[in-house]
Amino acid sequence: MARVGWRTAGQNVAVSTEYSGTGDPRRSIELLWGVRERPRRGPRPRLTVPGIARAAVEVADAEGLGGLSMRRVAERLDVAAMSLYTYVPGKAELLDIMVDTVLGEQQRPSRVPGGWRGRLEQIARQEWALYRRHPWLLQVATHRPPMGPNVIAKYDYELRAVEGLGLSDVEMDSVVALISGYVHGAARGAVEAAQAERRSGMTDEQWWSAQAPLLAEVVDPERYPIAARVGAAAGRAYNAPAAPEHAFEFGLQRVLDGIDVLIRRRAAAGDGS
């Protein structure tokens, strides 16, 4: 398990890369879909699986994924740690439920203006916002995703954005994966920028103002003419070393341009031209 230093919400914590789908698959499915039969007798349970998941999300939001543990979740719920295991067998299954829980926050309007492009833009911006609210999601490897109701609903909604455009089923899946992968990378850069500001106590503008005069002393613009020209233009535009929001929007439009080429090619092939 890879670990690096990461300060979140004013605290130093260790960030770990966690992997979804590493727990007991049957228990995860039961918990995600609520199919396990509940006791019919006895007192009403004090806790619920959704409530535990929401508390776990709050811990991860505040302390980072490295600060998440069954003990910390129990403390937030003001219960003994062992009592959680009555509902959730362990951290691996808890992580699956957490991922599915936050995906349920996304809005999925039935009508979005702008055709397929507008629909994919809406999906991308929803996911961008989700990562900004829950940056710990970037440390969850979902090669084997938790197949919960919100994961399935998200996938189905995204596929409907490109349904009926002449793409094959595999191409539809690839387009959805392309958008998701792009947003994941862009969001990582944005989250890292925000964390750098918290860690250093300096805004990007302050950092750039301090660095620019020093660079002017040591960098010869005649030796690096293109870097000097473009870097100066970008620095004036961003007043910072980078602009995550601008990079996200610029890159998203270029990804959509590429998808547009694919759709046009499939349409042309369907016309026999």
Report strand order across the widest sheet. 1-2
Global structural class: mainly alpha
Number of domains: 2
Which percent range fits the helix content? 55-70%
The total strand number stands at 4
| Helix count from the secondary structure assignment | 11
Radius of gyration: 23 Å
The largest sheet is:
2 strands, antiparallel
Keywords: DNA-binding, Transcription, Transcription regulation
Protein name: Transcriptional regulator, TetR family
Pfam families: TetR_C_1, TetR_N
Domain HTH tetR-type: 46-106
Explained architecture:
- The structure is a single chain.
- The chain is mainly alpha-helical and 273 residues long.
- The protein folds into two domains: 220 residues, Tetracycline Repressor, domain 2 (Orthogonal Bundle), CATH 1.10.357.10; 41 residues, no CATH class.
- The protein has eleven helices and four strands; from the N terminus they run E-E-E-H-H-H-H-H-H-E-H-H-H-H-H.
- A two-stranded antiparallel sheet has the order 1-2. The chain has a two-stranded parallel ribbon with strand order 3-4.
- A hairpin with a 2-residue loop joins strand 1 and strand 2.
- The N terminus is likely disordered.
- Keywords: DNA-binding, Transcription, Transcription regulation.
- This is Transcriptional regulator, TetR family.
- Pfam families: TetR_C_1, TetR_N.
- It comes from Micromonospora pattaloongensis.
- One of its GO terms (molecular function) is DNA-binding transcription factor activity.
